[in-house]
Specification:
Layout: E1 2-6, E2 16-23, E3 28-32, E4 37-44, E5 47-50, E6 56-58, E7 62-65, E8 72-76, E9 81-87, H1 89-96, H2 100-103, E10 107-109, H3 118-127, H4 131-149, H5 158-164, H6 172-179, H7 183-194, H8 198-214, H9 221-225, H10 232-243, H11 247-251, H12 256-268
Antiparallel strand pairs: 1-2, 2-9, 3-8, 4-7, 4-9, 5-6, 5-8, 7-10
Length: 277
């Protein structure tokens, strides 16, 4: 198993977190944590995904996964090679032109998005010889999409991002105050850009921060849990819901792909508040 990351060009980094290229040298089944949305292209081989509803779905040659609100499972066949792009919340409207709520916890064939230029781009990525070439192709495509949609993009709710990524559990009333809109409108914006309600997002990112803490040398569940969970059983339940394994299983590397990808993203893309989450 090999996972390589590549940064998008500078003007795209508020929309695209990073590119990655994954190679499976043998068949594997891996839990994947709740995450931001992704666009993935199967360069070769095959894979399947199982979301929280239990349905196992075969991956098409190119697909979009919306923001996930729970852990899910990937079944990857030997020889599979996948190029992907992590789509930051701002990118859903600015690049994809799709509500994150519409795609949340779903896998959509890119043909469902009616991108006229999609097919040639997919072919070019599948025929590229390196992740650098793939990234350059993706950069050109995403930059063109940004230009095409420039006049139709709404103001991004920065206050919502700040509330979600805050190290402490801020109250919902505080978010409404920061947003300076009604509670109902706050909920609508959260679903549009992040794919879920503010409270669910807070639980998600709290668990993901705990996974980062647990993954550090000498990681301990008490330090990882901090003061955000009622007790150990609450911590284990929430951790498993969003990371896909228990804290002990995470320490035992039973979610190796999640652990590797989070550590590598944090190493190369820590400039954005949501970069490593």
């Amino acid at each position: 198993m090999e996972l390589v990351f590549h940064l998008p060009r500078i003007d795209l980094r508020d929309y695209i977190r990073c590119y990655y290229f994954f190679t499976a040298d043998q068949a594997l089944v891996q839990p994947l944590c709740a995450e931001i949305g992704n666009i993935r292209v199967l360069v070769s081989g095959s894979a399947r995904l199982r979301f929280a509803d239990g349905l196992m779905t075969r991956c098409p040659s190119a697909f979009v996964i919306g923001p996930t609100t729970s852990a899910y499972v990937a079944e990857i066949d030997s020889g599979a090679r996948v190029f992907g792009a992590g789509i930051l919340p701002r990118g859903w409207d600015a690049i994809l032109g799709v509500s994150a709520e519409h795609a949340a916890d779903r896998m959509l064939d890119v043909t469902a998005l009616e991108w006229r230029a999609g097919a040639p781009v997919i072919d070019a990525i599948q025929n590229a010889r390196s992740i650098s070439e793939m990234a350059a192709i993706a950069d050109t495509f995403f930059a063109r999409r940004l230009e095409q949609r420039a006049r139709r993009v709404s103001a991004y709710p920065r206050a919502l991002e700040a509330w979600i990524t805050h190290g402490s559990d801020l109250e919902l009333d505080r978010l409404v105050e920061m947003m300076d809109v009604s509670r109902r409108q706050t909920d609508r914006l959260a679903k549009r850009y992040f794919g879920a309600s503010p409270k669910l997002l807070q639980r998600k990112y709290r668990a993901l921060r705990a996974a980062d803490m647990l993954g550090k040398p000498g990681g301990d569940w008490r330090a990882a849990a901090g003061e955000s969970f009622y007790d150990q059983s609450h911590f284990i339940k929430e951790f498993r819901a969003f990371v896909g394994v228990t804290p002990q299983e995470y320490l035992n590397k039973q979610a190796q792909l999640t652990a590797i990808s989070r550590a590598e993203r944090k190493r190369i893309v820590d400039r954005h508040p949501l970069a490593a989450l």
